[in-house]
Amino acid sequence: MKALFKALILVPLILAVVGLSVANRAPVDVSLDPFALSLTDLRLTAPLFVVILAAVALGALIGGVAAWLAQGKHRRAARARGLEAHKLRAEVDRLRVDGPVARL
């Protein structure tokens, strides 16, 4: 069932990327200096689909890093709870072997 859902999402996505790439093959100039547009030192000529896909990939990377950093406190709390659960399991196992301790 998961494979069907993957196919229903990935196949149209791949077809859209291929269509975008075929339709936007014309070279464009990308200037990395917004103040001196006439300089060619910081200018890149590439097909438009490469610029679009690079921008999407960079956005996905930045978004992923931001989400990972924002989730750090939750990962830290889960790690602490896991360590506490491990200690409590070890104590339960020890009590099962030794038996309960009589309280005075």
Give an overview in words.
- Strands 1-2 form a two-stranded antiparallel ribbon.
- The chain has one domain (11-98).
- It is mainly alpha-helical.
- It is elongated and about 85 Å long.
- The mean pLDDT is 89.
- It has helices at 2-23, 48-70, 72-98; strands spanning 27-31, 43-47.
- It is built from three helices and two strands, in the order αββαα.
Number of helices, counting only DSSP H or I runs of 4 residues or more: 3
Q: For the terminal residues, how far apart are their CA atoms?
A: 60 Å
Name the strands of the widest sheet in spatial order: 1-2
Major sheet characteristics: 2 strands, antiparallel
Please tell me what the overall shape is.
elongated
Would you count the extended β strands for me?
2
Helix content: 55-70%
How many separate domains? 1
Low-confidence stretches: none
The arrangement of helices and strands along the chain is: HEEHH
Amount of beta strand:
5-15%
CA radius of gyration: 28 Å
User: For the residues shown, what is the average pLDDT?
Assistant: 89
Short description:
Helices cover 69% and strands 10% of the residues.
Question: In terms of topology, how is this protein built?
Answer:
Layout: H1 2-23, E1 27-31, E2 43-47, H2 48-70, H3 72-98
Antiparallel strand pairs: 1-2
